[in-house]
Amino acid sequence: MAHHHDHGHDHDGHGHHGHGHTDIDWAEMAPLLESQAELFTPLYEQALSWLAKEVTDPGLVVDAGSGPGVISCLFAETFPGARIVAVDGSRPLLERARDRAARQGAADRFDILAGELPGVLDELDYPADLLWASRSVHHLGDQSAALAALAARLAPGGTLAVMEGGLPARFLPRDIGFGRPGLQARIDVVEEEWFARMRAELPGSVAHTEDWPALLASAGLHHTRSRTFLLDLPAPATDRARAYVVASLGRIREAMAERLDAEDRATLDRLLDPDDRASLHHRPDVFVLAAHTVHTAVRPV
After folding, report:
1. 84 contacts 76 by C-beta, under 8 angstroms
2. pLDDT tens digit string along 205-219?
3. SS3 per-residue string spanning the chain
4. CA 87 to chain centre
5. Where does the record place the region Disordered (predicted)?
6. Alpha carbon separation from 283 to 61, 165, 268 (Å, rounded)
7. Given a cut of 70, is residue 23 above it in pLDDT?
8. pLDDT at 204 over 80
């Protein structure tokens, strides 16, 4: 069950896996996924700090859709007394997660579990005190049923934390000096249309109003809360941030450009051309600004 949906809705790049993109070589993608997740570490650290105030001294923390384990290992740092289980459909990415945990000295309390969400969670040895699902639920056809399945794996009093929603990322000024101003806003429209098609084509797809607190409540959970966390990496971009922007817009150019008009395609081509001094590779005004929302709810005791 592997997914890497990096178009707008998954601009965190840590490669959570939701449904069978079997043509993707995850071992080959892993270094890029890790680098992108590391770029977003300040945002994740804010989110985990907030969760740590909500969830005290958990025994088991599960990262459902862990990718190469960057966030899983942040959980190991945040909760030094907890056992961490990274769950994903890609064993090569899980091996990266285990290696990362070993480098950080957490190997003795770090486990991996490979398989399809949410069913694979039935293989957990005991219920989770904190179950984290970052942009993996939207890759499951029936999101309400998926949340109910995740909630069923919680211990009484356990917390489900779902990262879904937020705002589209921004990398460039509205007017970049060539092409029509507002390129990223037009890309947003194309991405939303792509996302709607992706959701509609999932096995067992069910349309739900994406009111995440209401969906969590319908899964039998209570005390719903939501909070949004910001990644603000201002210009001039670091090499890692610049590489992330190039990779993100490069994937958009490859996957969606036919849905943009000729002028916007030409603008993207200039932005991606390393020989063009106005490209992303050289511009001083490249930045990364992103907002991700976390929704939490608690299983009744």
Report:
1. yes
2. 999 999 999 999 999
3. CCCCCCCCCCCCCCCCCCCCCCCCCHHHHHHHHHHHHHHCHHHHHHHHHHHHHHCCCCCEEEEECCCCCHHHHHHHHHCCCCEEEEEECCHHHHHHHHHHHHHCCCHHHEEEEECCCCHHHHHCCCCEEEEEEECCHHHCCCHHHHHHHHHHCEEEEEEEEEEEEEEEEECCCCCCCCCCCCHHHHHHHHHHHHHHHHHHHCCCCCCCCCCHHHHHHHCCCEEEEEEEEEEEECCCCCHHHHHHHHHHHHHHHHHHHHHCCHHHHHHHHHHHCCCCCCCCCCCCCCCEEEEEEEEEEECCC
4. 14
5. 1-22
6. 41, 29, 14
7. no
8. yes
**What sign does the CA torsion over 72, 73, 76, 78 have?**
negative
d(CA 171, CA 230): 14
Residues 6 or more apart from 120 whose CB is under 8 A from it? 1, 87, 113, 114
Burial profile 78-97: b = 16 or more Cβ within 10 angstroms, e = fewer = bbeebbbbbbbbbebbbbbb
Torsion of CA 53, 54, 56, 62, to 10 degrees: -120
Separation CA 55–CA 45 (nearest Å): 15
Reported confidence tier of residue 28, pLDDT bands at 50, 70, 90: confident
pLDDT per residue over 79-120, tens digit each?
A: 999 999 999 999 999 999 999 999 999 999 999 999 999 999
Cβ atoms < 10 Å from Cβ of 217:
15
pLDDT at 29: 82
Confidence bin at 30 (pLDDT 50/70/90): confident
Range with lowest mean pLDDT among 1-5, 130-134, 173-177, 214-218:
1-5
